[in-house]
Specification:
single chain; transmembrane; 20 helices; alpha/beta; EAL_dom; 5-stranded mixed β-sheet
Amino acid sequence: MFFFKPSNNFRLNPSERAYGLAGLGLGTLFAVTGLLIDMQVRRWQGLAPGLGATFTATAMHVMALSAPLVMGRIFLEIGRRQSKLEDRLRQMHQSEALTREQAHCDAVTGLFNRSYLTRRLEEGIASRLWQKRGALLYMLDLDKFKKINDTFGHRAGDVVLIEVGRRLREACIGDDIPVRLGGDEFLVVHFPRPGESAEDFAKTLIESIGQTIDFENVPLTPGLSIGVARVGEDGRTWSDAMRSADIALYRAKSRYANAFEIYRPEMRRAKDAEAELVGEMKRGLDRNEFVLQFQPIIAARGGGIRSFEALVRWNHPRRGQLAPAEFIPAAENSGLIFHLGNRVLLDACAAAASWTAPVGVAVNLSPIQFQDGQLAMRVREALEASGLAPHRLDLEVTESLLLDPTPTVIRMIAELRALGVKITMDDFGTGFSSLGNLRRFRFDRLKIDRSFTEELASGEETAEIVRTIVRLAATLRMETVLEGVENERQEVFAKLEGLDEVQGFFYAKPMNGDAVNRLLAERAEGTRPADENAA
């Protein structure tokens, strides 16, 4: 049995067993055939042709008994070598298949990846088959994925990505291709069924992926925005089609959660115009085209100047002076708000430090500025560089920042508080601030939105809303500011209803730094400012 002792735990695989048995059979056939031939030869020679006589007549037949074992061993080795070769080839094929799969699939979700999508898009557009079938690109972005990562950690983020990938596969039908582009962005190539519109599948995706995802008994809702583009019609190359879907997604994200937009040519024109504006802004920042103007914030009772709000203006070389509404959205979308916001902060603190009276300065902050985690450090650097006392700086934030505050936002507000600066809730009443957030963050002031001021004359309902805000602020030990005051009636209302401060054209228009110092000097002399002081 030594000849047939297997090398792998005394067990032969089917291939080795087949080769071994073939060797045994061939060896046995050799021995028997030799014996039969010798018997026939002996018969021709007139010798006794019997089996026993023939077998004992020569030692060759005794030796032939070992032929089955020898041949079996030889063939077994051949079988083993063949089996090893087959195993190696199988492993190579499996490795190649795994490499191809990994090259085409996302490691986290198991969906196809960007490189696979690019190849299939190129093939589909070149053959025009996808256009004939009405293929649609659905580009998806998870709106609250960053907050989930920041709050619950990357493991929760992976759970969300995996579940979204599973739901995408379930939503796809037929030849649809689900893809993870990277990060929290996905894409589906969808081939609509007869009678199915682009809106129908977008709603299906929102309904499926918009459902809560359980993570350690915590319900997570990532939110979803979708941009839709038509292959061939909205882009004749794969890159054009992808850009069209991305432009539509950009428009959807600017609306609200769980929204979708279908690409239209005017979207590309608007996006190109914004890209041009961003390029001009970059050059404008290098050329110091952005300047500050200041509008006084007045004590409702007494009329003294409490502070100035810093308002950025862009002296555009072709379009003249632009208001913030014309360029701040582009700055936020492009990330330039970090550079611009820091410039405004530095210039406002430096200007306030040079004023002839120790009044405050209010600086507006974009919610985007809280995302880099360095805001408190930049505020501290601006205070140190200018020498401005922290209590003279008032940072104005909007309600949207606290609609669903992330741990980063909460930490930033705490760090700003620790610096000793004031924090004001700007445009209060137009968003969705909860009483819990007002209690939690304890703002120094609530700045009532100008839309309420404009509607004071239209009815008692608006006036009662403002009174309620004033009472709420007093309960929470916050001051109130009525902005947009443009006539005496509005001023009288502010005084009678107990508002602390007022702001608007009724007192002064935004002015440059020199006009601020003249106004402060006139106030110090006890004179009432005239309109000519405004710049």
